[in-house]
Design goal:
Helix content is 12%, strand content 49%. It has 247 residues and is mainly beta. The protein has a 17-stranded mixed β-sheet that branches. The protein has a three-stranded mixed β-sheet with strand order 1-19-20, with helices on one face. The longest helix is centred in the N-terminal third of the chain and has 18 residues, at 2-19.
Length: 247
């Protein structure tokens, strides 16, 4: 099974490589052994990935598929956009390490847990029946149909800023919980006990939204990748995702 799995991945990489500059072409891959949880939609200048059960880091390629328990890391200049199968988006800033776990149930439903050891990540959940958790060394943020920014420092302290919807933040050591709305910010200190709540200005929230939604996606022409999954009953599901050439 591992050999078959590797052969399919090699074939997938060859198909994408052969696309070259034909960014508007739609490529179809029927992939049976396992469904990916997400895809690296766009990145610059370089992003590395460690696949589950492997020790080595490899360079991400365009439309790189991420499976449950894979880890993605950006360097001091790196940026990455990760797209989940329900079209939810996670955007990673430099010096961010993210491990994804979970499963994709349908185009409207993904259950995912993202462990962020350090860095900054923006999450916009669009799946109507999806559930996402962001786990840091000191807190857990549970989200559904919302967008917010998480900032995790080297000492483990975590800051969450609500941009839309509601996000529930729990300090892992004390179990204290708070709900964040737009313009609410929660700071969980390095012991994971206390949560400090503040309000930020509308201008600051608008600036953060613009920073995370106006990015390098707009400067490139996407290609289209169609992923087909067939279940044990023979039913075929197709997910269509945009991807971009690395700069």
């Amino acid at each position: 099974m591992k050999k078959k799995h590797s052969a399919i991945l090699l074939m997938f990489g060859f198909i994408l490589f052969s696309a070259g500059s034909m960014a508007s072409t739609a490529w179809t891959l029927e992939y049976n052994p396992e469904k990916p949880l997400a895809m690296v939609r766009r990145f610059k200048p370089q992003v590395i990935v460690k696949e589950r059960d492997k020790n080595e880091w490899i360079n991400a390629h365009r439309a790189h598929q991420l499976f449950s328990s894979d880890t993605l890391r950006t360097d001091h200049e790196g940026h990455a956009v990760v797209q989940f199968m329900d079209n939810s988006i996670a955007r990673l800033k430099p010096n961010t390490e993210l491990t994804v776990t979970g499963e994709s149930n349908s185009v409207r439903s993904t259950s995912a847990r993202m462990a962020v050891e350090i860095g900054e990540i923006y999450l916009n959940v669009t799946g109507q029946q999806s559930n996402y958790d962001i786990v840091t060394p000191t807190a857990v943020a549970a989200v559904k149909g919302t967008s917010f920014v998480s900032q995790i420092r080297a000492d483990g302290s975590s800051t969450f800023t609500g941009l839309s919807g509601i996000v529930e933040v729990t300090a892992t050591a004390s179990g204290r919980q708070v709900n964040l709305n737009r313009r609410d910010r929660a700071f969980v200190e390095s012991t994971g006990n206390e949560i400090e709540i503040t309000r930020v200005s509308e201008q600051e929230v608008n600036d953060m939204e613009q920073e995370y939604t106006h990015d390098f996606d707009e400067t490139a022409t996407p290609g289209t990748l169609r992923l087909r999954f067939r279940n044990s009953d023979g039913q075929l599901r197709e997910v269509e995702l945009d991807y971009f050439d690395n700069e």
